[in-house]
Amino acid sequence: MANELLYPKHTLTRSVVSLDGMWKFKWDPASIGEKENWQSGLQHTEWVPVPSSFNDLFTDKDSREYAGDFWYEREFFVSSDWKDKDLDVRFGCATHKAVVYVNGKQMTSHVGGFLPFNASINDVVEYDAYNRIVVKINNELDATTLPVGKSITLKNGKKMVKPFFDFFNYAGLQRSVSLVITPKESIIDFTVKHELKGEDALVHYDVETTGEHPVEIEVYDESSHLVAVQTGKQNTIEIKQANLWRPLDAYLYCFRVLIKDKETIIDEYEEEIGIRTVEVKGDKFYINEEEVYLTGYGKHMDFDVIGRGMDPVVMKRDFELIKWSGANSFRTAHYPYDELFYQMADREGIVIIDEVAAVGFLESTKNFLDAAGGKVTGFFNYDIVHQETKKNHKNDMYELIQRDKNHASVCIWSLLNEPDTLSERATGYFEEIFDYAWELDVQKRPRTFASIGTSIPGKCNCYQVCDIVSLNRYYGWYFLNGFELSDAEAFFHQEMELWQDVGKPVIFTEYGTDTVNGLDKLPSVMWSETYQKEYYDLYHRMFDYYDCVVGEQVWNFADFQTVEGKNRMNGNKKGIFTRSRQPKPIAYLLKERWEALAGVQEGDGETWHLI
Ligand code: BDP
Q1: I need a surface site. Which of 146, 288, 387, 420 has the fewest CB within 10 A?
Q2: Residue ranges of the Glycoside hydrolase family 2 catalytic domain (predicted)?
Q3: Probe ligand 1: pick from 572, 573, 576, 579, max atoms within 8 Å of CB?
């Protein structure tokens, strides 16, 4: 298959035709589609927008909660100008499993709802004619899917999903779909790794193509001046007096990759590359050999009506709010985001902790409450987890690292969120997953997983595999809350003493309180704005006290949709911003703190930069 996971780009030799817009749509609750030949065309359909989730478009509950198969269809024109080219249909994602048909024939299938894939369609298209693409998708969850959950059937025969995670199971064609036209001999992959040499930088690169013609690289600076050239599929480029990519101070070079036959350009592809190194030493985290302290958010891709559909307008607003609040990072909780987020983060100098959709690895529909209450779920005791789930997990990691490996913004991989770490069989699973990430990533970025409150030294069988320890902690919210907040602080200290002794850097990847915007009370009560402030003050005291803490990412950037339930009032309200992206009062407190942290600080007699 051509193109692999390169982002679709229009260049001298390549074309991209957007297939976004209105598509035909049809539910298939009895899974009869294939038997009735729906792959050749759908009858009696709805019309829905792509990209978007289907769930919040309709006004009835059956549509919102639908679980099972559903189908999309649209037509697209193929010009005879493309006869000697490779044609692929590229899906930004299809959540969670998809089968793609073109002109009635199965082209490809894909498992995993948050990563791109291609269908090579050369063999079936008709030229100078309209062609039909039909996609069957399924949104059900089980112990082998990423994320994990289960599907149940109600007495009335309708299916529903029970996620083992705390966000709505939005589904559909949630990211852009495009027709990608490339030359037969083309660039299919491009990998970079950076090394600093005083003022200069070495960029080691590796280009994969489908042919034997020579490869040339041209590097341009931000003023479009050619600063370096190199030849060969694998080689090193020296950039004199390199401008490095730094948090909140990004610099991007344009890397132009060419396949040439003498002076004729056979294929051309461009990527914007930030030059930087990332590393962990002792209990500190470094970018370009400078210590870094992360501030920011755990996020979701979530917005009113469009659900988890990619919308560049919402994304832009999110980046503006991130910058306004003085933050320098976010985690793509709890799945890989649309590629535009990473391009934007490269450009804005925002550090990303890039997360695989390995969430729900704890057998519970309210995992935090159950784990905090001491319920041991033994997720890793099931054999199927070590076979099917692990296979899907590794496949998602492969696609994620393949897709995101060149982004300067991606500085840390998060390989799971809140898994069961207490089962003995968890250790082997974690070791294999962590080794695999190391093998896949030529930049050897630090690896972590976001750990649940019960995963503490002495009990957790897995933290030793991490380069960075990430803590999701809710002292003062899920337990020891309200008037018991002072006890929360005392227990919190006990745990932190243990982490301080471990000798690894610690990032807080979650902490927060559900807070209803506009609800306040003096003295405070839980859910009020004043309580939220008291809670955050406690956490800030803690972060400032322990040296091993190298980052703080609040939960969550904005309020977001979850399943309905007695612990959730139309969703999770831990947002620093409302779902419509307006600040709650706590946002101003964080802004003050993070802006102060972003300044130059004095430490142990030497001056060092927090960002
Ligand atoms: C943790 C999860 C996160 C939840 C959060 C919460 O990692 O997805 O939304 O807690 O309960 O369990 O708010």
Answers
A1: 387
A2: 278-597
A3: 572
